[in-house]
């Protein structure tokens, strides 16, 4: 389900090596950004305190921890993340893991996003790991299971958004990285869409890192992307 303010549909990935650098960027971005993603790199350099701080300042936080462990551990860990005030948490889309996370978030407002198959995997990686299914079939199977178990959404590449929206219906939150404004440096992202294209394809939230964090004028870059999202919503 999409947020109504276009700013709330842009999630800025704080892929930075230190809390000091993350705080300086957050300060520069000010009101232009309402939603941040904190991943493992920053968490392992003290980023959990930043989750609390951002939440207490009215910002939303997507904690990208990609949990996967035995059910008891996933349940307890999810419950602690809910206490931190995060809005989104990622878990791997294994049925046991997703069920445990659903129990752990209890009645909190934490939303759970499933990672179906990592986009760095292709069919040969799955075969090497012992899977009989290829990527496309496994993504579809896990997406269906995620919905059935009560996950709130999926992380997926922009190219998968259209098909998944058709398969899963309007309720699931579809969250996509791999976004590049026109003319932006692609870096290591191979299959990209512009913010407008991804929104029109059915994405609810866009995760955007370097086009903002690496810009000379990050606030202006963020504002331009929000304008593009607004225009695509129409
Ligand atoms: O800098 P960039 O816009 O490419 O950052 C995208 C963010 O989304 C990064 O935090 C990256 O780890 C994450 N991500 C991704 N592709 C995936 C899953 C997550 O780029 N398949």
Can you walk me through this structure?
The chain is α/β, with parallel strands linked by helices. It has one domain (6-233): Alpha-Beta Barrel (TIM Barrel). The protein contains ten helices and eight strands. The protein has helices spanning 19-29, 40-56, 71-84, 95-105, 123-128, 135-149, 158-168, 195-201, 210-213, 218-233, and strands at 10-13, 35-39, 60-67, 88-92, 111-115, 153-155, 173-176, 205-208. Helix 4 (95-105) packs parallel to helix 6 (135-149) and helix 8 packs parallel to helix 10. The longest helix has 17 residues, at 40-56. The two termini are 16 Å apart. The model has no long low-confidence stretch (mean pLDDT 94). The structure holds cytidine-5'-monophosphate. The site of cytidine-5'-monophosphate has 14 residues, from strand 8 and helix 9. Cytidine-5'-monophosphate binds at residues 13, 15, 39, 119, 155, 177-178, 187, 189, 207-211.
């Amino acid at each position: 389900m999409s947020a109504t303010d276009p700013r709330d549909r842009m999630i800025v990935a704080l892929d930075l090596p230190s809390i000091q650098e993350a705080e300086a960027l957050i300060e520069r971005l000010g009101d232009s950004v309402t939603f941040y993603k904190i991943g493992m790199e920053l968490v392992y350099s003290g980023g959990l305190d930043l989750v609390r701080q951002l939440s207490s300042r009215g910002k939303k936080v997507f904690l990208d921890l990609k949990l996967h462990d035995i059910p008891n551990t996933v349940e307890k860990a999810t419950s602690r993340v809910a206490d931190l005030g995060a809005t989104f948490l990622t878990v791997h889309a294994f049925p046991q893991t997703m069920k445990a996370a659903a129990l752990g978030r209890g009645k909190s407002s934490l939303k759970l996003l499933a990672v179906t198959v990592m986009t760095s995997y292709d069919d040969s990686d799955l075969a090497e790991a012992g899977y009989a299914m290829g990527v496309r079939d496994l993504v579809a199977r896990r997406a269906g299971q995620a919905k059935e178990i009560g996950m709130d959404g999926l992380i997926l590449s922009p190219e998968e958004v259209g098909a998944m929206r058709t398969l899963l219906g309007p309720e699931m939150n579809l969250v996509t990285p791999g976004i590049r404004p026109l003319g932006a440096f692609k870096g290591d992202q191979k299959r990209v869409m512009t913010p407008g294209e991804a929104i029109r394809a059915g994405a609810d939230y866009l995760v955007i890192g370097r086009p903002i964090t690496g810009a000379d004028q990050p606030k202006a870059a963020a504002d331009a992307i929000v304008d593009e999202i607004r225009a695509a919503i129409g």
